[in-house]
Design brief:
about 70 residues; mainly alpha
Length: about 70
């Protein structure tokens, strides 16, 4: 490629990949993240408790699955 083609290609790429106008953040997100962490742990839903109970029952009925569960953790 010659210099003319390089300049033309460079201009086409600049037009195609313009930087976004509002690329910056509106505000700092770290203070709100710290507030959420200070509020405590998230609430557990009833579905979570049902899944824990089912997993416990599954382990009691089929104890041979314990090594495979530990492997996938």
């Amino acid at each position: 490629m010659n210099e003319n083609n390089d300049a033309k290609l460079r201009d086409l790429l600049r037009e195609a990949f313009r930087p976004p106008e509002n690329a910056g953040l509106e505000r700092d997100l770290w203070p709100s993240m710290l507030r959420k962490l200070d509020q405590g742990s998230a609430r557990r839903s009833w579905l979570d408790w049902i899944l824990v109970a089912l997993a416990g029952a599954w382990i009691l009925v089929f104890p041979q699955v314990i090594p495979s569960l530990l492997y996938h953790l």
